[in-house]
Every structure is written in C-alpha cells, then in structure tokens.
Amino acid sequence: MNKKRSLWGDLEEGFGGGSRFRVLLHLALHPEEAYTKYALVKATGVRTPAVGEHLKTLVEMGWVKEYPFTPKTYQINMDHEIVKYFLEFVEKIRHLAQ
To answer: What's the whole-model pTM score?
Structure first.
C-alpha cells in the first residue's frame, strides 16, 4: 500500500465530518484529561450515538485511548505520530484565537 495514500486516507477518516472533528478537537484541547462519553456529549453538543461511533473509529485508529473503567473514559493519544502533529497545529492555532 502506498504510504502517502494511506496517510491521507487516515487523515480523512480521523477528521471525518464536523461532529467527529468537534470530539477530536475537544480531546486535543484538553490532552491531559480523560472523558466519559457523557462528558464529551455535554462538552461538544454532539448526540450520544454519534459520539460513540466517533470514539469507536478514533480508538480503532489509535488516535484516542480507551480506558476500561466503569464508565469507560477516553483521552487523546499523545504518542500517536499524526496526533502529535495535530496537537502542535491546535496549539499554534489556539494562539491566533487569543
């Protein structure tokens, strides 16, 4: 498989539509925190079934870690190479918003 094609495919799948991006962005803006699905619903305004599907995809990709607590919690995976670049990007953009 072509690595370049795989990278762009991963980015497209990871960022997905607007609601997946909102979930990912919230986790990226708070990288030290782990959130329940309910907390992400409240923080992003995205409906519970959609948050669940987005988290499933992001966990499968390795962009988000899932912790097996009751209830499960989720945290951005700061060790994933693509996520590291995304976090750098978010941090730079965050400065523009201030």
So the answer is: 0.86
